[in-house]
TrEMBL record:
CDD domains: ExoVII_LU_OBF. This is Exodeoxyribonuclease 7 large subunit. Keywords: Coiled coil, Cytoplasm, Exonuclease, Hydrolase, Nuclease. Signal peptide: none annotated. Belongs to the XseA family. One of its GO terms (biological process) is DNA catabolic process.
Amino acid sequence: MPEMPKTLSVSQLNQRAKQTLERDVGEVWVEGELSNVSRPASGHVYFTLKDDRAQIRCALFRQRARFVSAPMRDGDQVKLRGRVSLFEPRGDYQLIAEAVQAAGLGELLAAFERLKAQLEGEGVFANARPLPFPPRKILILSSATGAAIRDVLAVLETRWPLADVTLIPVPVQGVEAAPAMISALALLNRQARLDPEQDVILVTRGGGSLEDLWAFNNEHLARAIFHSRLPVMSAVGHEVDVTLADFAADVRAPTPSAAAEHLVPDQHTLTRQLEQLENRLHRAMQARLERDSQRLDTLRARLRHPGEQLEHQRQHLTTLTQRLQRAMQQTLTRQKAQVVQLERRLSSQDMARLHRAEQEYVDQLQRRLGKAMQRALEVRRVRLNSAARELNAISPLAVLGRGYAIAQDEKGQVIRRADDTQPGQKIKLKLAEGRLSVEVKRRLKS
């Protein structure tokens, strides 16, 4: 009988299939549409990647999911890098994702964000020069046949017919657009050195898809706008459209029409403002004339003829002269009377009597001084005797006078106890009168 082939278990079969897939297919890039996106509490992302004819289960584990910048939503078109594998417990063929990025439009947006971050880091978006208002000459980079230039010219004509506008026709879409605009910017900046009347450059086009506007996301165009000597305004697409040219420009307008409105004033508004200013000036002039007329009338009423004014001053001077003469005469008469009175008082005084009175007063003061000094000396003598008695009462010498003595050792230290001496030691005794040098024979206890 023929030998039976080796039988495999289900787990062995799935294990072989997994090894074969991972070895023979390995890591691949796959593009498709996201479906059934699930995010359990574990942090992993499970989803299905499909196209119009097939689908495959996918898993994006938590360690890799945190590197995906854009949110993953059903219907998104993505490119996925992963390893083909098989989930053995269920026998599910699956793709283990390592990286996920947007495809199609998503790639453009990702490229836009990368360029934006790079140019912003280089300072290309730091322009913010003020635009002249109103400008003397406006240079427009745009398509000659697009709706944008028609809108801009219509607004400029309505608001400010005095605007000097020069159109530099350039392609605004496709691969030729960015190089053409860069060349035009270089040419205009060279001409600006020769023609100082040129004030501002407007780069504009109408709306469109991201692909249509992609020329305005060219990094070389953004750098050319940044380095432009002339200030640049950008107005690309609709209000929601934003390009790198908008960031690099000095001023960005949401639409071409809004750009034209920003560049020039409204003649009708200015006319109304001028009329208002004219009316205010007329009223101010009328009020000023009326006020000055009243002031002139007041001054005229106060004004006097020069001859009359001189006569008035002459009379006033005469009056002052007379008052001065009278005052001087009165002062002289009063001082003469005082001198006469003082002379009479001086002649009536007896100088000898005054001298005797003054001498008696001096003698009296000397007697009082002698008595006061005697009393002060007596008081101080009494106080000195009292202090001497008190001092003598507490003086050691007074104690010695009553028969006591003070014993001192060789160093002059006072000996208070017998134990502080030794037999044969020389000590000194201080008496009330004189001193003794003695030798200790023996010590006695009290």
